[in-house]
Specification:
Blueprint: E1 8-12, H1 15-25, E2 32-36, H2 42-52, E3 57-60, H3 76-97, E4 106-111, H4 127-146, E5 150-156, H5 163-167, H6 181-190, E6 202-204, H7 209-214, H8 216-221
Parallel strand pairs: 1-2, 3-4, 4-5, 5-6
Helix pairs in contact: 2-3, 3-4
Amino acid sequence: MSAGVKHLVLLGRNEANLTETKNHLTPNNANCSIHPVSITDEKALKDIAAAVGTWDILVLNAGFLSNPAPVAQAPVDDWCQSFETNVKGTMITTKTFLPTANPSHATILGVTTGMTGLPPAMLPGLSAYISSKLAQVKFLEFLAAENPNIFVASVHPGMVETAMFVKSGGQANAMPMDQVQLPAHFIVWLASPEASFLKGRVVWANWDVDELKAQAQEIQAGQQMTGGIIGWPYPHMD
């Protein structure tokens, strides 16, 4: 709550986890409400959106990582669940909350993974997760283009040891890890007017803010930090 939030709304499937997060974030009894819900439950989300009313910042942090496996060995339902949560869930949540966005300064931030830019050979067994997160990035680019009055961006939170990180096969003792405060602080900045030049872009919480600001004109002039095909012949096409 150090960011000056007046009302924090937490959505997630697990009520116990939501309650734990609320207790951790609001030691001074700041205004915080929790809503146990699946982000693919459109009817339930509509009821929550109506109860919440006008909002300023929507952070899309829900995600699912299918059990790592080669495509030929992956169970279809488990593989497709990454798309169900990471793409369909993102679309339903966004579509549901768009009508009540603050018309003057709403922000939508999607938490993605920097691994979407890595060659598949470096990510064995992660086809479902990486493909779905890349699709999510492109969806948010469309959302940014379609809504001129809403700031939309995707953010890689860095290497934070979470349950999903462990499930992916990551080993914290073998990688340069980050603390959760890094993405937390970066997201607060990303939601500020100072970061407006990053609309429709994918950014990393590890990046230096001052260096980003120094490249603002260059970033806005081309297709840097967007999802595309390597070697696309028109890098400066608007």
